[in-house]
Amino acid sequence: MWETYSVYANCYGGVIILGVVENKDGSWRTTGLNSADQSKMLKEFWDNINNRKKININILRDDDVVTYDVNGELIIVIYVPMAKREEKPTYINDDLFGGTFRSNHEGDYRCTRLPIKTILRDQAESTMDMEILEDVPL
Q1: CB 50, CB 58: distance < 8 Å
Q2: What is the Cα–Cα distance from 90 to 58, expressed in whole angstroms?
Q3: How far is CA 100 from CA 34, 36, 79, 90, 117, in A?
Q4: Which residues pair with 80 in a beta bridge?
Q5: Which of 16, 33, 44, 70 could form a disulfide with 38 if both were Cys (CB 3.0 to 4.6 A apart)?
Q6: Over pLDDT 70: what percentage of the chain?
Q7: What's the average model confidence in pLDDT over 63-74?
Q8: How many CB atoms lie within 10 A of CB 10?
């Protein structure tokens, strides 16, 4: 789950659903969480998301994590927003170059050094592509 959090924060955001599995045919079914599991998972989730050794930055608000009752089965839905430019890269396990992930096609992939350096460069308040070029013909 933490790699997926990194991917969503570093890319365009996304939704993580706990208590649901994907079937072989691509459909979804709930596995549900009992209320004791749900409380424990939520506590563990918030403890980890606020632990800088696990995730370098928490970009979630309280209302980004919601529990639902689906036909008597509990699920947890985590809405991960895209991180702001100055909050990127979002990485796991206190490891900038080994714990930064992005998404390509249908998978989550560990970033190589070059994309990470590009993200770090773009953290600046004023990036090179924000500058207005005077006296440049079309």
Answers
A1: yes
A2: 9
A3: 32, 32, 19, 6, 11
A4: 14
A5: 33
A6: 96
A7: 89
A8: 24
